[in-house]
Amino acid sequence: MEFARQGADVFLVDRSQNIVDELCAALRAQGVAVHGVAADPAEPAALAAAVEACAAWRPALHALVACHLDIDAVSIEASSNEAWRRSVDVNLLGPVFATKAFLPLLKQASEAAVVYISSFDGIFGNPKLPIISTAKGGIAPLTHVAGNEFARYGIRVNTVARGMTAAPEHDDNPRFAPMIAETPLGRPARPAEIASAARFLASADASYITGTVLVVDGGRTAITQGTRRMDASGASPMWSRT
């Protein structure tokens, strides 16, 4: 929606035909030029068909936003090998395959951008989500090397590493409480805020930014974890002047 508000034509790819239909209908109701296909965005053959459909609709692509996501909240010990393969296929190889597939259309634009939607769990590791933390961990180096390789084509590559994200009505969800306590801004990100960060990285306003991971987490990873709880408790500093 954020890109559409900026006047962009939108091409959608999602596994679910229902989601594609709903989003296309919502955007068309706002006067947006939109086309969508149902395809597995982590499967090269399906992506090839999506690229063909996109090229027939718009021969040049100015921005590719890859927001692949597969979550399996299970410990390493209890996890299945298949869960690891699926997560790597979707969360890491999905963006790789999407970039490779749409590269010819990106090269048709005089300037273009790729934006990956990742997570700060891929930077620091979430003990509750070890599988996706590991898979998303590959997105940062992918951003660096792709930003370097595709600069010759005028294609910039950046990543939004998002923190916890929820609509306001879910702020009181108990599972957010420990994370909110460690977040200086004191709330989850809104979906629109993540979309705005992606829109910025894809826009001409970020024309000299490439190979960068932009962390959008309300300041949570900017401080040593646990120190905010010390502040709240009034605990004394763990050092003294002699």
From TrEMBL:
Name of the protein this chain belongs to: Uncharacterized protein
CDD domains cross-referenced by the UniProt entry: SDR_c
Stated family: Belongs to the short-chain dehydrogenases/reductases (SDR) family.
UniProt source species: Burkholderia cenocepacia
GO terms, molecular function: oxidoreductase activity
Keywords: Oxidoreductase
Keyword Zinc set for record: no
A Pfam family hit: adh_short_C2
Parts forming coiled coils: none
Statement: the UniProt record of this protein carries the keyword Zinc-finger: no
Stored Gene3D superfamilies: NAD(P)-binding Rossmann-like Domain (3.40.50.720)
